[in-house]
Specification:
This protein has 310 residues and is an alpha/beta fold. Helix content is 35%, strand content 29%. It is elongated and about 80 Å long. Bound molecules: adenosine-5'-triphosphate (ATP) and magnesium ion.
Length: 310
């Protein structure tokens, strides 16, 4: 449905996107993930025709964005990174105003607005001025604006930045209900756990280049291990992380934080017995042990050597 092929873009000598290629299937809720400055917004700008690419191709439903720009725009709804609303107007009037820009009017527009306010959970607040809204409510209204012309594809550029946890859940519910109704969604974020909650497949971008692409499970497999062992000890002597790493016990990555140690382990090699023996040999006491699946966040850290939040 959306095919992005070898997209490359530079601003001056700065290469912002390099041979970016991935596909989004019809009806999919797809995640585009990357830290600040990775090139996410630039890719979205290209996808929506705001910017041009230097080379590459993008096809939407088989049509090239280079030659069928106008037709493709009709199928796209964009929620930009910066909220664009008329603060002095209420939600209903905002939707009416933006609907007018799309050429919608009359009863058709009114019923569309009522429907969108309902799905966005804003019906009770529709007469309230937008300037009195919380960040999350503004964001939901912005999504509703993007859905006015019934696009088959919705593109969201970091829709939860500056939004509290409860509002975030509302936004998630809204996005999921749009996905269930058949909208194809490109969800952009630098919050790994959001992508992990919402999306099955993900493209990870860093400094304009692909870091990983596939299902969450495939991305995690790329780093060659699937589990994280968390240990709390009575104390962690200096250099103990190196001792663990060099123990030939399938330990690939060690992070120490006070008394807590997180080990990324290769399940096929790691032995818990061996770890416990080593801890005892060092005359340390285990307070707690916990084994869990490696998160996408941890996978990213190992693929790029950096955390997503900077
Ligand atoms: N119009 C522009 N002119 C020059 N450089 C630009 C322009 N737009 C973006 N850049 C640069 O391109 C790189 C990618 O920016 P972009 O906004 O696409 O990243 P992003 O992944 O959306 O980041 P963020 O998470 O901060 O929104 C950055 O280094 C940015 O400084
Ligand atoms: Mg951005």
């Amino acid at each position: 449905m959306i095919e992005i092929k070898d997209v490359t873009k530079s601003y001056g000598r700065h290469k912002v996107l390099q041979n970016v290629s991935f596909e989004i299937m019809e009806g999919e809720l797809f995640g585009l993930l990357g830290p600040n400055g990775a090139g996410k917004s630039t890719l979205i700008d290209i996808l929506t025709g705001i910017q041009s690419m230097d080379s590459g191709e993008i096809f939407i439903n088989g049509k090239s964005i280079k030659t069928d720009k106008v037709e493709i725009r009709k199928q796209l709804g964009l929620v930009p990174q910066d909220i664009a609303l008329l603060e002095e107007l209420n939600a209903f009037d905002n939707l009416e105003y933006f609907g007018g820009l799309y050429g919608l009017a009359g009863q058709e527009l009114k019923s569309q607005i009522e429907k969108l306010l309902e799905v966005a959970g804003l019906t009770d607040k529709k007469k309230e001025k937008v300037k009195n809204y919380s960040g999350g409510m503004k964001r939901r209204l912005n999504i509703a604006v993007a859905m006015l012309h019934n696009p088959s594809i919705l593109i969201l550029d970091e829709p939860t930045v500056g939004v509290d946890a409860q509002s975030r859940q509302h936004i998630f519910d809204y996005i999921q209900s749009l996905a269930e109704q058949g909208t194809t969604i490109l969800y952009t974020s630098h919050y790994m756990e959001e992508i992990e909650t919402l999306c099955k497949r993900v493209f990870i971008l860093d400094l304009g280049e692909e870091v990983a692409y596939g299902t969450k499970e495939e991305v995690k497999k790329l780093v060659g291990h699937t589990q994280t062992v968390s240990l709390t000890l009575d104390r962690v002597p200096a250099g103990f992380d190196e001792v663990l790493k060099n123990s030939e016990n399938g330990i690939q990555f060690v992070t120490v934080n006070g008394q807590d140690i997180a080990l990324t382990i290769d399940q096929t090699i790691f032995s818990m017995m061996k770890l416990i023996e080593q801890v005892e040999q060092a005359q340390l006491v285990i307070k707690s042990v916990n084994v869990k699946e490696t998160t996408l966040e941890e996978a990213f850290l190992q693929l790029t050597g950096k955390t997503l939040r900077d």
